[in-house]
Each structure stands twice: as structure tokens, then as C-alpha cells.
């Protein structure tokens, strides 16, 4: 697949989208004393930015990619962003169980992009 605006821009936008969504969903865990409504409203505001990136990513990419391929790209990016966030922001350790689980998801991504099995 050639590198064009329609093939690269969705990936870049989905990376940005997933950074914002990961912060929206998990960033509040760094502030356990914040009241729930503040955590929810803050997360909602951050998630709004995520939508401004995800929707154009899918609009631009659809046609170069199928819907299933776009969703697969989003999920793989989401896992990579989340793993980095868990380690570098939340201070968690990744284990072999995580590696096996992520590898199985990557295997699924391989089959989505491989095409029809014959």
C-alpha cells in the first residue's frame, strides 16, 4: 500500500486520538482524591478532543482501509499507547501475560490485513 495522505493521516490522527482517550479514561487515576463528578467532567472534556481526531481519521481513511482495518489500526494503537501510559504515567509493570495477550491481538490484526483465507 503506498504512503499517501489517505493512508498515513488516519494513522497519525488515531495516534493523537488514542493519546487523548487514554488520558481521559485513565489520567484521573493519578488523582484519587478528586471527587467523581470532577473526574468525569474532566475526562469528558478531554474525550471531546479525542472525537475531533478520531472522526476525521475514520472519514479520511475509509476507502483506503475497510472499516474493519480502521478499527484494527485503532485497537493496535490503543494498546501501544495504553502500555506506555501504564508504565510511564501510572508506574505499572508490564508482565509476560501482557506480552502474550498483546501478541495474540497482533496476530488478530495480521489476519485482518492478510485478506481472505483460502
Structural summary, described in words:
The chain has 118 residues and is mostly helical. The chain has 4 helices and no strands. The chain has helices at residues 5-26, 36-61, 67-88, 96-114. Helix 3 (67-88) runs antiparallel to helix 4. The mean pLDDT is 94.
Summarize this structure briefly.
The protein is an all-alpha fold and 118 residues long. It has four helices and no strands. The longest helix has 26 residues, at 36-61.
Task: Compile the SSE list and pairings.
Blueprint: H1 5-26, H2 36-61, H3 67-88, H4 96-114
Largest pleated sheet: none
**Individual helix count:** 4
Oligomer: single chain
**Spatial extent as radius of gyration:** 16 Å
Give the fraction of residues assigned to helices: over 70%
Low-confidence stretches: none
Q: State the order of secondary-structure elements, H for helix, E for strand.
A: HHHH
N→C terminal distance? 21 Å
Proportion of residues in extended strands: under 5%
How many runs of DSSP E, i.e. beta strands?
Answer: 0
SS content category: mainly alpha
What is the typical, i.e. mean, pLDDT? 94
Task: State the main characteristics.
single chain, 4 helices, 118 residues, flat, mainly alpha
Amino acid at each position: 500500500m503506498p504512503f499517501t495522505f489517505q493512508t498515513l493521516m488516519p494513522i497519525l490522527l488515531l495516534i493523537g486520538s488514542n493519546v487523548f482517550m487514554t488520558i481521559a479514561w485513565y489520567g484521573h487515576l493519578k488523582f484519587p482524591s478528586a471527587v467523581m463528578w470532577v473526574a468525569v467532567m474532566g475526562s469528558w472534556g478531554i474525550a471531546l478532543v479525542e472525537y475531533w481526531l478520531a472522526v476525521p481519521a475514520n472519514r479520511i481513511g475509509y476507502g483506503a482501509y475497510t472499516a474493519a482495518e480502521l478499527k484494527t489500526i485503532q485497537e493496535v494503537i490503543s494498546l501501544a499507547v495504553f502500555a506506555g501510559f501504564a508504565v510511564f504515567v501510572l508506574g505499572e509493570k508490564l508482565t509476560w501475560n501482557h506480552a502474550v495477550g498483546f501478541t495474540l491481538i497482533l496476530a488478530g490484526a495480521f489476519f485482518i490485513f492478510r485478506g481472505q483465507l483460502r
